[in-house]
Amino acid sequence: MPKPKAEKTPQRKPGAAKPRPEPKPGEALRKKDLIDRVAASSGAKPGDVKKVVEATLALLAEHLGRDEDLTLPPLGKLTVAKRKETGKGEVLTLKLRRGGAGAGAGAGAGGGAEKSGKEPLAATDE
């Protein structure tokens, strides 16, 4: 009688979804690094994250190509300041406006009731 075959569990490559060390100042964050870090921080599969990141980057490039502003908290507001055609492609000079002090943690998450003068929908301790 033949031996029953043991089911193989998929083996991950060592470090496949683990974040790489933080880039050094002046070092670019590459797409592969971004995918690895998002997968590690979200717990999602790297293959699924890759599809989402690539679709997001394509959409951002499309909007910037049409000179449309991008407002993406907590990153900030991104606008095309200059555009120049070169022999190697198109060069965009972008302007990124980030929020000032205090605009990070509570902004957009119900933390603006004090500024607008409106009553919040729920108490802050709920």
Report the biggest beta sheet as strand number plus sense, adding barrel if it closes: 3 strands, antiparallel
Sheet-strand content, in percent, reads 15-25%
What is the percent of helical residues? 25-40%
Shape: extended
Largest beta sheet: strand ordering: 1-2-3
Structure, explained:
There is one protein chain. The chain is 29% helix and 18% strand. It is of the alpha+beta class. Among the domains are: 28-66; 69-98, no CATH class. It has a three-stranded antiparallel β-sheet, covered by helices on one side. A hairpin with a 2-residue loop joins strand 2 (76-86) and strand 3 (89-97). Helix 1 packs across helix 2 (46-65). Keywords: DNA-binding. Residues 1-33, 100-126 are annotated as: Disordered. GO terms for molecular function: DNA binding. Residues 1-10, 19-33 have a biased composition (Basic and acidic residues).
